[in-house]
Amino acid sequence: MRRSVVVILDGLRRDFVAPDLTPNLCRIRQEAEWFPDHRSVVPSVTRVASSCIATGCYPDAHGLEGNALALLEDGRLVVHDAGLPEFFPHRKRVTGRSLDLPTLSERLAPHGGAAVFSNVSPGAAYAQDPDGFGTMYHRAGSHGPGRTPLDPPPVKGGTAGDRHIADRFLETLMSDAPPAHALLWLSEPDLSQHDSGIGSPEHLAALRAADEEAGRVFDAVSELRARGDDVLFIVGSDHGHQTVAGIVDIAAELDRLGFGEALAAGDIAIAPNGTAFLLYASEAARDLVPALAAAVGEQPWAGDVIAADALATVNHTDRRGLALYVSMAASEELNAFGVAGLSHTAKPVTGEGKPAGCGQHGGLGRYEQAPFLMIAGAGFSAGATRNEPTGLVDIAPTILAHLGIAADGMAGRSLASSSPAQLHPERKSHA
């Protein structure tokens, strides 16, 4: 039986995969191909990353542009938190679709099915299967195919919750009727990095615990292979982290720069995304965008300011009102634990955001754009290193290729036995 098994360790940046920190991942690496030029997406946040993994496409096509994003409702731009459990039903009411493209769960419904076990935000979990085609196990609501209700896990994010979710995942994986595709998404080390800082004792303890879960799944995969199953095993992360250098109130800054009236009128809207923010503009405010981009670009807290036609270079589009993507200023400076990579962050719509010294992501900083990826199975050489650019959109077509199912319409490509010459010409430098 051909099967795929995927484990995502949320927020694990590539340079923290090391023998003293992640012995199980290093053990897996000896049996898998390692991809040292693997990249996250833009913005480098989990709900976007999850949508890209699920669809094999970028935000310009699947429609989920950020952890926070704006929808045009009754002629006004309304900012939403895509992490809330009610977000995808609301987006479907507004736009007609939960996501604009089918997910792996939808594609695999007639081919053995898919099961997702997730301990991250509801929106990030449901992005894998927003319309209930497969099994979803999450604390905000669990279901079987066709949205048959299941008891949700009595857990929250963190190490204990990850262990509970992994236990249930392994029960399903080793059952008499396993799905063709099974995904386990752990909350660590992302949560501990956000709360305690990258390289902190709390972060390193959570990282080691997440590494143990990856090792348990790898051992189960080895047992399945011994039984005769042809298992593709993928283990990786969705993004890395930078350390917060300071928090910027983007709304206050735009008001200071002379754009407060348009912001108050709802003609422009800000969607903070950690170390980046999205700025939307109505048709009435489109003429303001060049001056706004120029003004923002002159600020010390701004890094890359990407607007208009240049949005395509980060795999976004202005079709839904997006006018600017701004990656906050980043540096190679060290944090209090001697870990490189600092970035300014955008103050969220509600709350103050993570303070200086904590971990954050969303922009184009070197380390937040450095997740890791390892793949073991048919078409991959044990212990090999593949020095070609890869991205999150390559995961879905790699899975479908292993299962013998067409990956029509995907931006990514199967990584099995591929060469750099097979790279898609549309792959962008920032993605």
UniProtKB/TrEMBL annotation:
A Pfam family hit: Phosphodiest
Protein name, per record: Arylsulfatase A-like enzyme
Species for this entry: Rhodobium gokarnense
